[in-house]
Amino acid sequence: MPKLVLASASARRKELLAQIGIAPDLISAAAIDETAKSDETARHLVARLAAEKCAAVAREHQDKFVLAADTVVTLGNRILGKAADQHQARAFLNLLSGRRHRVMTGVTIAAPGRQLSHRLAVTTVSFKRLSEDELRWYLSHDEWQDKAGAYAIQGLAGCLIKQINGSYSNIVGLPLRETAQMLDGLGYPVFQSR
Length: 194
Fold this sequence. Notes:
Elements: E1 4-6, H1 11-19, E2 26-27, H2 42-58, E3 65-75, E4 78-80, H3 86-96, E5 100-110, E6 116-127, H4 132-140, E7 161-165, H5 168-172, H6 176-185
Parallel strand pairs: 1-2, 1-3
Antiparallel strand pairs: 3-4, 3-5, 5-6, 6-7
C-alpha cells in the first residue's frame, strides 16, 4: 500500500479522509506564509496555498503521496479568514447573516515521481437571517475559533444554514469526491477492496 502524507494539521481534514476509508500514514503541516498577496483573488489564493503546502511537504517525502488543501470563505470579493477574536467573529457572522457566500478549497496532490493534480471546489452557502439571540448563543460556544468565516457547518452553525449548493465536505475543509478522484487518478488505491 502506498504511503500518504496529509500536509495539514487540520483534524477536520483527517476526519473527512477517514469517512472514505483513508488514514494518512503521516501528518506534516507545511510552515508557509499564508498571507494573501495584494489583489489576489480567493480562487488564486487557495490554489497557490495548496500548491505551496504540497511542494513544501513533498520535498521531504518524495516517495509518498502528499495531499494539501486550503479553504477560505468569501463574500463577494472579500476573503473572510479565521476571526482573531470574538468581536471579529461577530462582524463576520453579521456580514454572512441572511446572505449567500462561497466556500472555496484548493486541493493539490503530489504522487511519487512528482506528478501533480490540482482542483478547486466551490460551494455556495446561504445563512438564515441571524437574530441577536442566535448570534450571542453561537459566539458563547467558542466554536467560531480557528474557523474560516467564524463558523463550522458540522457543528452548532448547522442550524443557522438555510441552504447549500455544492459539496458539504468542501465547507468542512476537504471536498471528498474531488479528492478521491484525484488520488485515484494518480494511482493511489482509493477504490480497491482492502
